[in-house]
Amino acid sequence: MSPVIEVRNLRKTYGAGDTAVHALRGLDLTVEKGEYIAIMGASGSGKSTLLNILGCLDVPSSGKYLLDGIDTGEFDEEQLSLLRNRKIGFVFQSFNLVPRTTALANVELPLVYAGVRRAQRRERALAALDLVGLKERTHHRPNELSGGQQQRVAIARALVTSPAIVLADEPTGNLDTESSREVLGILDRLNASGRTVVLITHEDEVAAHAMRTVRVVDGSVQTGGVAGVLV
Amino acid sequence: MRLFEIAAFAVRGLTANKMRSGLTTLGILIGVASVILLIAVGNGASSAVQQSIAGLGTNILTISPQRAQPGSTVKPLTTADAAALVGPDSPDVKYASPVVSAQATAGYGTTSYAISQFIGSDPRYFDTTNSAVAQGNLFSDNDVQQARKVVVIGATVATQLFPGTDPVGKSMLVNNIPFTVIGVLAAKGSSGLQDADDMAVAPLTTTQNALTGYGSLSQIVVQARSADALPNAQAQVTTILNGRHKVTQTADYRILSQDQLLTARTATTETFTVLLASVAAISLLVGGIGITNIMLVTVTERIREIGIRKAVGAPRSSILGQFLIEATLLSLFGGFLGVAAGVIGSRFTIAGIQPVLVPSSVLLAFAVSALIGLFFGSYPASRAAKLRPIEALRHE
Ligand SMILES: Nc1ncnc2c1ncn2[C@@H]1O[C@H](COP(=O)(O)OP(=O)(O)OP(=O)(O)O)[C@@H](O)[C@H]1O
Ligand SMILES: [Mg+2]
């Protein structure tokens, strides 16, 4: 069985000439189906750049990214949007909910673009909100929710399409301990139900939830990844 | 994904920020309405001038003194000239009214008012100028002979000097000389740039005594027996006046028929209309820039939202569709309101002018604003939709 994520010699350069920033310098990474991976590394080492490429939100300057064994470099914009919609759930550090739109409508959003019918859409969105413990807040707008609640809505949105992979860029970075614990609990349960989870974090306690920690140093993976079940 | 869902996003996008949608609509509304209204006012002014001249009747000749040319002398037009124009030598002339006019300050009680035209003439003047009396009476030939200090005032003078009271029978001071108001003329409305009701008429003799002195008349207004007799009447009047003024080469007076007057005035109002049209063009431009501006701000503010939608898998076409529908709704709604405001506004008199709608201007204003709104509402959105999701999300 092929790995769900396979990255070969990935490079990403921002800008050109003297001011060019080499965010990724020939990075290799393999993630098997059902794995739970924490990506760690110093600020500016290229973690977010990597995760954005894995989420098909950005494209690499060179190198290969195989998703479920298929080379994403051959996909056009239309197919990429389909991938983002069906296969990937992305959770941002800054939540990125559509403003002035209820939690329910935010969670329904990917389903609308997937063409799911109204009644079923509602049912699935409510189920996702229930899963993150926000059944009582379905009609609140983002500005009426706490940071932790907003992040849980964002996670509900990421998992509502039942994606194979959930990617999370510092999902607890803006949250207090209690909210962090809730969010990590949800991610743990997602992984337990068979989803592949990749998250970025700066905190060892968060990384402890993962099966494996990948350390990114200067745009490539430090070899000899530590098994991080207990730190 | 169905069109219906995209349209629902568009409507939700508009209602989610009512303030922003409202302001955009308002911008388009003002742009459209001001263009329609300005053009209607220009058009109204010129048609009012034409109507007021047409109202004079087609059988009128106006004789006015010519300015002195070098090497020729100018004889004033006199009451005797006017009297000589009616007689057996001029069978086609019905009346000839001598007219003097001046500006005068009128006072009643503590109010005073500058009347822009104080006219002295005879009773025929009312007939030739189609002036009807609304209250009281006109003066008679007897009043002219006796030089009685009576005056008939226009509607504007009546409202300015006698608000809430009946002017008839009151004594009004004209340049400190008391005149008895014996009648008020029916309102004629404004004739373009000048208020036709801002006037008063007194007997010729009285006016000369009190205001103008016995110099040249301002005009002699000749009424021919019929419109068909006008050319004959003009020839007879010319012969008589040439004889009396001993004209050899160039006449020292000028005869204008109503046709000529119309041509002259039309030229003036055309200039006015061109002026207003350029103001309208500028306001269309300014309105357009306003619409452009608010549409650009609206879309720029929402590039992050476009990024979020793309991140959860929105295809480019659905984002384009959403913003296109939003821009269309705003532009059409604002455009319709603007047309409504323009049409309603043109029912009111503006600066003394009754605007007359020009249908093509309604269409033009609507089309230009709607297209600008559509273009600037959807073009930046289409550019944003082409960005990679992460670029759109990072947009400041
Ligand atoms: N859009 C961009 N344009 C130019 N340079 C960029 C851009 N995005 C990231 N970079 C640069 O690429 C490098 C890696 O950035 P990245 O965001 O991946 O770091 P990170 O590991 O996520 O850091 P942090 O832990 O602080 O979030 C940094 O030096 C950053 O300045
Ligand atoms: Mg980062």
UniProtKB/TrEMBL annotation, chain A:
<keyword id="KW-0067">ATP-binding</keyword>
<dbReference type="GO" id="GO:0098796">
    <property type="term" value="C:membrane protein complex"/>
</dbReference>
<dbReference type="Pfam" id="PF00005">
    <property type="entry name" value="ABC_tran"/>
</dbReference>
<dbReference type="GO" id="GO:0005524">
    <property type="term" value="F:ATP binding"/>
</dbReference>
<dbReference type="InterPro" id="IPR015854">
    <property type="entry name" value="ABC_transpr_LolD-like"/>
</dbReference>
<dbReference type="InterPro" id="IPR017871">
    <property type="entry name" value="ABC_transporter-like_CS"/>
</dbReference>
<protein>
    <submittedName>
        <fullName>ABC transporter ATP-binding protein</fullName>
    </submittedName>
</protein>
<dbReference type="InterPro" id="IPR017911">
    <property type="entry name" value="MacB-like_ATP-bd"/>
</dbReference>
<dbReference type="InterPro" id="IPR003439">
    <property type="entry name" value="ABC_transporter-like_ATP-bd"/>
</dbReference>
<keyword id="KW-0547">Nucleotide-binding</keyword>
<keyword id="KW-0813">Transport</keyword>
<dbReference type="InterPro" id="IPR027417">
    <property type="entry name" value="P-loop_NTPase"/>
</dbReference>
<dbReference type="InterPro" id="IPR003593">
    <property type="entry name" value="AAA+_ATPase"/>
</dbReference>
<dbReference type="GO" id="GO:0005886">
    <property type="term" value="C:plasma membrane"/>
</dbReference>
<feature type="domain" description="ABC transporter">
    <location>
        <begin position="5"/>
        <end position="231"/>
    </location>
</feature>
<dbReference type="GO" id="GO:0016887">
    <property type="term" value="F:ATP hydrolysis activity"/>
</dbReference>
<dbReference type="GO" id="GO:0022857">
    <property type="term" value="F:transmembrane transporter activity"/>
</dbReference>
TrEMBL record, chain B:
<keyword id="KW-0472">Membrane</keyword>
<feature type="transmembrane region" description="Helical">
    <location>
        <begin position="356"/>
        <end position="379"/>
    </location>
</feature>
<dbReference type="InterPro" id="IPR003838">
    <property type="entry name" value="ABC3_permease_C"/>
</dbReference>
<dbReference type="GO" id="GO:0005886">
    <property type="term" value="C:plasma membrane"/>
</dbReference>
<dbReference type="Pfam" id="PF02687">
    <property type="entry name" value="FtsX"/>
</dbReference>
<keyword id="KW-0812">Transmembrane</keyword>
<feature type="domain" description="ABC3 transporter permease C-terminal">
    <location>
        <begin position="278"/>
        <end position="388"/>
    </location>
</feature>
<dbReference type="InterPro" id="IPR050250">
    <property type="entry name" value="Macrolide_Exporter_MacB"/>
</dbReference>
<keyword id="KW-1003">Cell membrane</keyword>
<feature type="transmembrane region" description="Helical">
    <location>
        <begin position="272"/>
        <end position="299"/>
    </location>
</feature>
<protein>
    <submittedName>
        <fullName>FtsX-like permease family protein</fullName>
    </submittedName>
</protein>
<dbReference type="GO" id="GO:0022857">
    <property type="term" value="F:transmembrane transporter activity"/>
</dbReference>
<feature type="transmembrane region" description="Helical">
    <location>
        <begin position="319"/>
        <end position="344"/>
    </location>
</feature>
<keyword id="KW-1133">Transmembrane helix</keyword>
<dbReference type="Pfam" id="PF12704">
    <property type="entry name" value="MacB_PCD"/>
</dbReference>
<dbReference type="InterPro" id="IPR025857">
    <property type="entry name" value="MacB_PCD"/>
</dbReference>
<feature type="transmembrane region" description="Helical">
    <location>
        <begin position="21"/>
        <end position="42"/>
    </location>
</feature>
<comment type="similarity">
    <text>Belongs to the ABC-4 integral membrane protein family.</text>
</comment>
<feature type="domain" description="MacB-like periplasmic core">
    <location>
        <begin position="21"/>
        <end position="239"/>
    </location>
</feature>
